[in-house]
Amino acid sequence: MATKRRKLSNPLALAVMATLAQRPMHPYEIAQTLRRQGKDTSTKINYGSLYTVVQNLEKHGFVEVTDVERAGNRPERTVYGLTEAGREEMTEWMSDLMAVPAREYPIFETALSLMGVLHPDEVTRLLTERLQALEVQAASGRGALRKLCESLPRIFLVENEYQLHMVEAQAEWVRGLLEELREGSLPGVKGWRTFHETGEMPPEFQELEDSYFDK
Fold first, then answer.
1. pLDDT in tens, 68-77
2. Half-sphere exposure of 153 toward its Cβ, with a 13 Å CA cutoff?
3. Rounded CA gap, 63 and 86, in Å?
4. If we measure between CA atoms, which residue out of 79, 82, 98, 101 comes closest to residue 13?
5. Tell me, what DSSP letter sits at residue 190?
6. Among the four 37, 65, 99, 168, which has the fewest Cβ within 10 Å?
């Protein structure tokens, strides 16, 4: 099942609509609520662009002005609420994200696809550094999650659980790859090493490349 092409694709727009589903708010209050509820750990939130996001949501009819607050000499604050169209868009968008796996392009995956430009020993050193950082991150995440579980129901922490699981899974995979690199058992590693030590492309690599492009 393919996801629907949407008028707005910025995840921050979805976070704003989900926040307004709680009650009408002005943009500053939306930003404070997102921060207080920890949504900045799972969504890239640029608070400087939040006002623009709200304006775009209003332009497409997903939010509307419900009030203008005036308090003494303070500037007016425009309060926005979610429209029926916005609620429908939010629900459909959420349904797509929850049900349909999307093809993403993590930067680490990009690095792995190009790691052949580095010597195997250098890749081993760098992945060792990464593994150490991941292990620290996982330990910190486990501690933080235990602390949060003392005061919050698990339903509010599932994204933290997912983040921790992804870190631990990546650490396990990197650990396995490092073991193969150190043992020299990774298929193709000898040719990779030969290329960096002689500057010559191993025949088996060239044959693989030729057969790939002949498809």
1. 987 767 778 8
2. 1
3. 6
4. 82
5. H
6. 99
